[in-house]
Design goal:
Layout (H helix, E strand, L loop, with lengths): L1 H5 L12 H19 L6 E6 L7 H15 L22 E6 L3 E6 L11 H10 L9 H14 L18 H10 L2 H9 L7 H16 L8 H18 L6 H17 L16
Parallel strand pairs: 1-3
Antiparallel strand pairs: 2-3
């Protein structure tokens, strides 16, 4: 925010799931419109919400409409923009009322991207965030790119305490531990043993990634060493995800599950691009 303000952009940090944050954004929009309209008393204003795909535009539009509608004199019909983790769900420009007296409407729009992405690093970051449909890309390569980012960051160090819970345990040993737990807990673990969103699987994935990175003795600047590390991580994740497949099919499933955990924040938060003056 400091970076953009130094460039004279109007900047506001918003959480679309926080009512107070949305109220602040609505106030900012109203104040800015008053500055632009000056002495005009009666007017209707439309504000275009635009950005790349899959960054949460529709979630912001929904929240501004719902919060703004509460204080509006004419309530109108409550509408909902489709919110999805997949890119391309918003296909039309849709209007939502967010204020009355004066009337203000916000236009939710489909995501926009450059017609061509010629920079491989830029394209990989877009793919990792889900801005490009996975069906258009090699999911395994995108997952490998995430593992490179994770292995080069400090995030995995937060998972060190997890190794103390089942240090050095194998899947068989984990099952033995489950037997010592209550029958209900054991049935839950076995019933959802392949559901990668369950907390106990996420913990195993974090533990596995911590162990592979912390035990890595190669050079992160050496391409061959990094490829060896990522290959070992895929092999270890096959067990952490409780997969029965093998070969390329196994790698594809590992990649898909890993990317889902990343995109839903289960493996930490990452900033893929930083302003040059803070890198």
């Amino acid at each position: 925010m400091k970076h953009f303000r130094e460039k004279n952009y109007i900047c506001y940090g918003v959480n679309s799931h926080n009512k107070d944050s949305i109220k602040g954004l609505l106030t900012l929009v109203r104040n800015r419109i008053r500055e632009l309209k000056g002495c005009e008393a009666n007017y209707t204003t439309t504000v275009l919400l635009t950005g790349i795909t899959n960054v949460g535009k529709s979630a912001i539009a929904n929240s501004m409409h719902q919060v703004g509608r509460i204080t509006a004199t004419e309530k109108g019909k409550l509408k909902h923009a489709i919110v999805s983790p997949h890119p391309g769900e918003t296909k039309d420009i849709i209007s939502y009322k967010i204020a009355s007296h004066p009337n203000i409407y916000i236009l939710d729009s489909p995501g926009v991207l450059y017609p061509e992405v010629t920079d491989d690093d830029y394209g990989s970051k877009l793919a990792l965030t889900g801005a490009i449909k996975d069906s258009l890309l090699d999911e395994i390569k995108v997952a490998q790119y995430f593992l490179l980012i994770l292995s080069s960051s400090e995030q995995y160090k937060f998972w060190e305490k997890l190794t103390a819970l089942v240090h050095g345990s194998t899947l068989a040993e984990s099952k033995e531990k489950c037997l010592a737990d209550s029958d209900t807990d054991y049935r839950r673990r076995t019933q959802y043993s392949s559901d990668h969103t369950k907390d106990f699987i996420v913990r195993d994935v974090r533990r596995t990634l911590f162990k592979t990175i912390s035990s890595f003795e190669g050079n992160m600047q050496n391409e061959t060493d990094v490829e060896r590390l990522i290959e070992s991580q895929f092999t270890a994740l096959h067990e952490a995800f409780r997969l029965r497949l093998s070969g390329e099919d196994s790698c594809s499933v590992v990649a898909s599950k890993l990317l889902n955990l990343y995109r839903t924040g289960r493996l930490g938060r990452y900033t893929l691009d930083l302003p040059r003056n803070v890198q």
